[in-house]
Task: structure prediction
Amino acid sequence: MKILAIETSCDETAAAVVSKNPKENYVKVLANVVASSLTFHAKTGGIIPDIAAREQLKFIIPVVEKAIDNSKLKIKDIDAIAVTEGPGLIGSLLIGVETAKTLGYLWKKPIIPVNHLLGHIFANFVSEKSKIKNQKSKIEFPAITLLVSGGHTDLLLMKDYNNFEWLGGTRDDAAGEAFDKIGRLLNLPYPAGPIIEKLSERGIASRFTFPRPMIGSKDFDFSFSGLKAAVWREVNKLKRGVTPEEGLPTARTERLEGALAGGKLAAGPQLKEAVIADICACVQKSIIEVLVRKTIRAAKKYKVKSILLGGGVACNQKLRDHLKFEIGNLKLEIKLFYPEKSLCTDNAAMIGSYACFHPEKMSWNKIIANPELYFD
Ligand code: KG4
Ligand code: ZN
Result:
């Protein structure tokens, strides 16, 4: 089966061509093209939906054309068009969905709608390079999947390719969102996750004691907004040279959200690079410790054979290493999988991958974009 896949749920405009042999349990990438409007968003400190959608309108046709060209396939060789139906920004989703509908109508191809979140998980079944082909074939069920992106932090029990049970998720900020919002407090460009990881290498991860929210709770939920508040207090304290309490406004949370939205912090000199690096290292450590503790607990409870990571935060090498270390330390018979970095962040190959495993085709006029889509 050969699929043209389209992904436009957030700020990326992506198209890929993938193929899957029915006898194999991995997907081959024939072309994978991603255009991003991140340079715009780096300046504004976050994604502006209107700008993202306008850029995607410009990119979508050239990106789809390039993916088909790179794949060396003819349009007649393509069996179906997969597209992200949700969740995401409605303006962005519509560009992908309407493009898929138009091409489906013109080329007389069926459409396969794909949940973006499940796409992130199925990035683990993509084999871009032949050397990882063998490893892919070893993913065994049941598995725990940790989905950590800019918009989501979810733990799922995956019993097989079609059977998912949602165990828990974030009650407020997602892990990637926490990295990005804290980055904004530190005047780092968006997206801050990769920059915080880089700066952390030079930081002292024991200098500040930031909270590890919900680390001991019996459920599989997460909460990262308290961490953001703690960093805000620390940054204010460092800038003003006052105690955390003195540095805080009285109506704490509303003022904090307002300050974060406007990027307002205590006046004063910019923090020194070494201090920023220390904050980054401590923040990264807090987030990773919570993610690892809950993932391992779920893996033990459900006696899984594999752990799969997905989403942009799964690029983080410390997260990968820490999980690997804990699995070894606890002598668990569990294999850890994560997609290569270019497949952790938003891309269309992962959407094509999910579609290859779930080729539930529909006519072009049946698909509807759903920004609120979650796990069923
Ligand atoms: O999956 P993704 O590309 O988009 C969503 O579906 O949200 O994830 C983007 C998120 C951003 O929040 C970004 O800061 C984070 O992934 N991210 C990282 C790293 N690379 C990307 N977070 C921590 N460490 C990284 N190396
Ligand atoms: Zn994503």
